[in-house]
Design brief:
Blueprint (H helix, E strand, L loop, with lengths): L9 E5 L8 H6 L4 E7 L7 H10 L3 E7 L7 H18 L10 E3 L9 H19 L4 E4 L15 E4 L17 E5 L22 E5 L3 H8 L26 H9 L14 H21 L7 H9 L2
Parallel strand pairs: 1-2, 2-3, 3-4, 4-5, 5-6, 6-7
Antiparallel strand pairs: 1-8, 7-8
Length: 307
């Protein structure tokens, strides 16, 4: 895998172990992103306050789930994903977060096979993708990554407390984020230190594979595929329909769910409420119109939507 590069964006990852953090001081120290522990067997007690503080300080924010050893099956992994998603919703919803959601998988105290570990990770990652619509990322160590197979399409956050580049492994030949220090050993920040103002004691140090501008460009909005272009970048004019959405936009406007203006603009909750309410009324009207014969259901739905 690649080495660290001068000019790469610097970040940290935190949990309740760091206590109360002075986020403006963290931001002023040149830290541009943070990955915050959300859940393990329950929500991290500092998760909500850390998200709020980091966002207010202008950092790019992500969240991670630590896969507990009690998760021994794919079904339990899906339950863990739902718990993480609930925490994300409590913090303000998926759209509030900038960076990929992360699965931290680094422990196997129950001696599960590699096949089971891979299946658990896959089930969790796929469930997060289903729940959020965004591709999540895997965090692990070089000594643990060999347990996984068939997961290298997911972005990788690798932990290696060193300046020596991690070796290629399990299908990955590059990292997206590198945790290069635990605040005590490993690499150092560009200023030669491992200490972050605003945090008492040590904290994990991380680097993104690119500059701050590249970090913001890549993760300003969630991606739909590992290395895809952001949907928001396919069309910078909010008054023009993106090619990938043209057919769906025409159908939605023809049926009067939208008024046809500003197709590329973000959607507020108020606007969403209007669409949902209209859809609800149409469905209720459709149901009321149904007797025994449903052969012309599509036509009746179209008739209702034209009203």
């Amino acid at each position: 895998m690649q080495s660290r590069r001068q000019g790469n964006a610097q970040g940290i990852d935190v949990s309740h172990h760091q206590g109360v953090i002075d986020w403006p001081k963290v931001a002023s120290a040149g830290i541009s992103f943070v990955l915050i522990k959300a859940t393990q067997n329950s929500m991290d007690p500092m998760f909500l306050s850390n998200v709020k503080g980091a966002k207010a300080a202008g950092l790019l924010v992500g969240a991670y789930h630590y896969m507990d050893d009690s998760v021994t099956t794919a079904d339990k992994a899906k339950v863990a994903a739902q718990m993480f998603y609930n925490a994300i919703q409590a913090a303000g919803g998926s759209a509030l977060f900038d960076l990929p959601f992360v699965l931290d998988y680094e422990s196997n105290k129950n001696g599960l096979s590699k096949a089971v570990l891979s299946a658990n990770a896959k089930a969790y990652l796929e469930e997060i993708n289903r729940l959020t619509g965004a591709i999540p990322m895997l965090y692990t160590y070089p000594s643990f990554i060999g347990n996984f197979s068939g997961l290298s399409d997911y972005p990788l956050w690798i932990s290696r407390y060193s300046n020596q580049a991690p070796a290629d492994a399990s299908g990955w030949n590059s990292w997206n984020f590198w945790q290069y220090s635990d605040g005590k050993s490993g690499g150092v920040l560009p200023n030669g230190s491992r200490m972050i103002p605003g945090i008492a004691g040590g904290v994990d140090l991380n680097e993104f594979d690119g500059t701050i501008d590249q970090l913001r460009q890549r993760y300003g909005k969630k991606q739909t595929r590992k290395d895809d272009v952001k949907m928001s970048e396919t069309n910078s004019d909010i008054n023009q329909v993106s090619p990938w959405a043209a057919d769906a936009w025409k159908e939605a406007t023809d049926h009067k769910y939208f008024d046809g203006s500003r197709p590329g603009a973000p959607m507020t909750r108020e606007e969403a409420a209007i669409v949902v309410n209209r859809l609800r009324k149409n469905l209720l009207a459709l149901i009321q119109s149904i007797a025994e014969d449903v052969s012309d259901l599509e036509q009746r739905m179209q008739d209702i939507e034209r009203k």
